Amino acid sequence: MKRQWRFLLFDETYADFSISTSPALERGVMEGISPATVVLDVCPEDSFTVGVLDDPEKAIDLGFCRQKGVVVRRRNTTGGTIYTAKGSAVICYYLRTSDPSVPQNIGEAFPKILGDFANTARQIFGFPARYRPLNDVEVEGRKLMPSSCKIERDTLVFRLVLNVKPQNVEITSKAILLPPEKVQDKSLKTVEERLTHLEREAGREITFPDLENFVRKAVQLSFGEVELIPGEMNRDEEKYRHEFREAYAREGWFLANSEGYRFKRIPPEAKRGEQRIKAVAGLIRTVVLKYQDRIYDIILTGDFHPRPHTILTDMESALRDAPAQPDEIKRRIEEVYHRPGVEISGTNPEDFVAAVVGAVERAA
Q: Using the 8-state DSSP alphabet, how is residue 321 labeled?
């Protein structure tokens, strides 16, 4: 029997969509007041978002973006910096994991859903798209679809940005702060080399019906017999949308992972250390304040996809005031990492140990 899912169409920048419409839809599905929903949003202007676990001041040149009038937001989902050029297509799934066709964990979701998006691109447009672990679709090393995934309260939220039109190379190359560790395992190193777009790979103009057809075919490939029925947001979702827009536009939310916001009381004798580690899943960044041979304070950030996404906060709490000794750091990290229900695909405890111990050593 063919299932029916709601299909919503928007024309919002990804920055605005990510701090209002998307979390409203997510909450509605989590609370059971909204049906399974698929979204296609075609962006009217350029914008940037950084993931909920990242520090915008380290991910984006905020001064440059202000100068150019490009909006930057911190979204409530995991993953790294996402640039959405004018004309980009944001494709989102808000699905209940009680549906047997829906992946039950993040490690399963990325290869399944992104692999099917790559297959759909090959079938419709004829170019060699492929899934690249953990969360990319690429064409001969060039990124076509950055994505993020979140599974909480029996709800899967999967979001990707399909680059449709050419990106503004000046914006991407100067705005995104790309640490060398981030591209150490990639053959194409610069931002402009790493990104591609659908019209380039397809060799033709892409229309809105092309994008709608792409979404419908990808959904069927991933989830079987599903009919997408055009719909609208309900009254509760509209209310949540307004509330989230107010909350996520505040400076306190945007800079919550920054050193200026987090490190407000620093003993004069404290030493700062920072270390970046590239895991398969993405970049792990640790900033430590070391005082009297203990970890006085710590910030753990990254562009990967843990479940639950609060696990880094738990890891920080476990390490705060810990002796600055490798064995003790390792013990506390492993205790949090191996808790029931924790999933950090594409990482292992040693990645976090190396990041924290490295930061402590640099604080000597």
A: T
As a whole number of angstroms, the longest Cα–Cα distance in the chain is 68
Joined tokens for residue 294: 């203990």
What residue type is 8 in one-letter code? L
Question: pLDDT-derived band of residue 308, with 50, 70 and 90 as boundaries?
Answer: very high
Please check whether residue 305 is in contact with residue 135, taking contact to mean a CB–CB distance below 8 angstroms.
Answer: yes
Measured distance CA(65)–CA(199) in Å, rounded = 26
What are the tokens at 137? 């679709």
What is the percent of the chain where pLDDT is above 70? 96
Beta bridge partners, 149, equal 158
User: Which helix H or strand E contains 155, and what residues bound it?
Assistant: strand 155-162
Match 């910030």 to its residue by tokens: 299
Buried/exposed 347-363: b ≥16 CB within 10 Å, e otherwise? beeebbbbbbbbbbebb
Q: What angle is formed at CA 109 by the lines to CA 105 and CA 112, rounded to 5 degrees? A: 140
Identify any residues that bridge with 300 across adjacent strands, giving them in sequence order.
286
Order the strands of the 47-50 sheet from edge to edge: 71-74, 47-50, 82-84
* Model pLDDT, residue 182: 64
> Using CA atoms, how far apart are residues 132 and 219, in angstroms rounded to an integer?
19
CA distance 354 to 277: 7
Q: Cα(48)–Cα(63) distance, rounded to whole angstroms?
A: 13
Handedness of CA 245, 247, 252, 258 (dihedral sign): negative
Burial category of 165 from C-beta neighbours within 10 Å (exposed 0-12, middle 13-18, buried 19 and up): middle
Question: pTM of this prediction?
Answer: 0.84
Q: Which residue is associated with the tokens 């290869």? A: 111
Query: How crowded is the C-beta side of 277, counted as CA atoms within 13 Å?
Result: 22
Strands 142-152 and 82-84: unpaired
**DSSP string of 225-282, one letter each residue:** SEEEEE----HHHHHHHHHHHHHHTSHHHHTTTSHHHH-----TT-EEEEEEEE-SS-
Task: Quote the CA–CA distance of 205 and 201 in Å, as a whole number.
Answer: 10
Taking the C-alpha atoms of residue 106 and residue 150, their distance in angstroms, rounded to an integer, is: 7
